Every structure is written in C-alpha cells, then in structure tokens.
Predict the 3D structure of the following.
Amino acid sequence: MAQDISLYREDALSGGQPESVPPSQEPKMSPQKPREPIFNQKPMGVATLIGIIIIAHLAFSIQNPATQATALATFALSPSQFSYDISTGNWISALAMLFGYQFLHGGTLHLVMNLAMLLQAGPIAEAGLRRNQDSTIRFVVFFLLCGVGGGLAFCAFNPGAESFTIGASGAISGVFAGFLWAAIGLARPGQAMLKPVLASAAVFLLINVGLAGLARVFNFLPIAWESHLGGFIAGLILYPLFARLGRRREAV
C-alpha cells in the first residue's frame, strides 16, 4: 500500500620595530585569549541525533521491501491516517508517526543533506542552550518537538491527504531557528545581529518554503515545505523557553 502513495521528502559566516629584550630578562608570554565556550565543548546533543538518524537509516535500508513497506506504514506521517488515529483514540499509532517520521529518509542524498544542515546549525543552537548536565537531553527534546511542529503543520496544510512525509528537515528547520536565536544571544556586546539574523531567516524561508513549494507544484521535487515552515515556527517559539531552562540550571 505504501508503494502506491506519493512520497514527500523534507529537504529545501602598528608596524613599529620590535623592542629588544635585556639578556637578564626572559621574554614575557602574552596571555592567551580565552576560547569561546561554543568551541571548547562538544555538541553532544548534535552527535547523539546524528548517530540515531544514521542508525535508523541503515536499519531501514537493509530490510527487504515488505519490511520497509511495513515500517513506512507505521512511522511515515500520513495526514489521513493521523487524523483517523486521533479520531479513534489510537494515540500510540499517532505518536509513532509524529516522532518516527523524523528518522526515516528517502535515500542517501536526502540523509546527507539533512545531516549537513544539522551539522551547520546544530552546534551553535546547542551552545545557546547553556551547556550543562542536562543540555544534551534538552537539545534532543527541542529537536523532537520541532519535528512534531513540522509534522502537525504538514497534516494541517494537507487534511485527509493519502500522501506521507518522512525526514528530519522539519526538526532541523526548528534547529535553524534556534541557531538564529543563539547567534543573538552569543554575540559580543555592541555587536549588531538583528539585521543579519533577519536576513538569514528571510533567505531560509525563501529557499526552504517558497522555492520548495514551487518545486512541488511543478513536480520537480516532492518537498514537504509545510513541515519546514512548521518546524521553523516551532523553533522560534520553543528555543527561548529551552534556553531559559539552561539559565535557571546555572543559577542553581
């Protein structure tokens, strides 16, 4: 059954002479500039998600076609099936789709493009959550909830549709929104960030929502632009809340 359903993938910074040092004095070492926090701590949340996504893709890829079809029927997000599960109170199936679709991909290229975006935006977004003992968990939960927002948006824009969507780009769109928030929060005092952040947001939406929508309209690529939009909005709303949790943890 899944093979007959159209597939939407979530695809698309003085020149004087040196002074002489008396022989009796050792040259003074200039103090080292402290490293930025975002570079001296590893983004464990990003690494965790990449590992899970790759394992899920490999596990799906080695299955026979019948098992893959079963996996798609269970975890790929279909608006019609999701609505039916909600109306009949089958919450387990609905939640399995809402979270599971984020870890399925339509091929190696789809996977690599999403992971490249996660590697670009994820470390800064995770750093902005104020890394501590629970920051990895907070980043993973933030990622998943952005994916839920993207999935709900896809269902809302396509009520009753038999098509389905798979891929992590809805969640990663939320991570990019977190990246923009973090760029503001991690900026040096006096550094103007509002205009470049707004410009980055506009370019992101133009490419991943506007052009992605046109690509689907003209049958060039079946990209779930709705999930990109929903994930991005979810990230804009949720990221400040998750960052505030990190600040409270530091205060304790």
Remarks:
- The two ends are 53 Å apart (CA to CA).
- Confidence is low (pLDDT under 50) at residues 1-6, 12-21, 33-39.
- The chain is about 65% helix and 0% strand.
- Residues 27 and 204 are 50 Å apart (CA to CA).
